[in-house]
Design goal:
By secondary structure, this protein is mainly beta. It has helices spanning 146-152, 157-163, and strands at residues 2-12, 19-31, 35-47, 56-67, 78-89, 92-102, 127-128, 131-139, 174-182. It has a three-stranded antiparallel beta sheet with strand order 1-6-5, with no helix packed on it. Strands 2-3-4 form a three-stranded antiparallel beta sheet, with no helix packed on it. A three-stranded antiparallel beta sheet has the order 7-8-9. The radius of gyration is 29 Å and the shape is rod-shaped.
């Protein structure tokens, strides 16, 4: 993901601005699963009159929020300032901040085709030495361990390996899980 956004803000300053002698921009963010909550911090000094050497410090914290697309890996999201412009008139400081949000996208999975159910007059149940097998489709969730899946479906690692490539399991992958039911 690569997205450029622009933040515009008019700031009411407590003083009349004749000139800005220094200005700087900093930022910080908290990135959650769904959004970025950040803050642009503008600091500097201004003069009220051109015929004075006295400067007045200023500092403004400007909060912002961005919604993240659902297909972005949050640990890879970064925010970078790409451009910063400002101008002023009397007691108003106008800022325009252009920033870039980057992050790795989740690998897109090909959808599994939906099959129409087949109704047989005499249903057939697969049996292996007085054991029944029920097949489940399980979608891998974040922080899920294979041991938990084995216990949940009352199966074994060998049975899962028989139907799936478990060497490259990722979040969102679908596993075919055979569940053994003793007769």
């Amino acid at each position: 993901m690569r997205q450029t956004l622009t933040f515009n803000k008019e700031i009411e300053v407590n003083n009349k601005i004749s000139s800005i002698t220094s200005i700087s921009l900093d930022h910080h963010e908290d990135i959650t699963k769904e959004e970025i909550n950040g803050e642009f911090i503008i600091t500097g000094e201004l003069k009220e009159h051109n015929d004075t050497t006295e400067t007045i410090p200023f500092s403004y914290n400007l909060p912002y929020t961005c919604i993240l697309p659902v297909d972005v890996i949050n640990d890879t999201v970064k925010v970078e300032i790409t451009d910063f412009k400002y101008n002023f008139k009397e007691t108003i400081l106008k800022v325009e901040i252009e920033y870039l949000i980057t992050g790795d996208e989740l690998e897109r999975l090909e959808p599994i085709p939906i099959l129409e159910p087949v109704i047989e007059e005499d249903p057939v149940i697969e049996t292996i030495e007085n054991e029944f097998i029920i097949y489940h489709i399980h979608i891998i969730k974040e922080n899920e361990k294979l041991e938990e899946i084995i216990k949940e479906y009352n199966t074994t690692i060998d049975n899962i390996k028989e139907y799936n490539d478990i060497n490259n399991i990722k979040i969102g992958d679908k596993l075919i899980i055979p569940e053994l039911i003793n007769d």
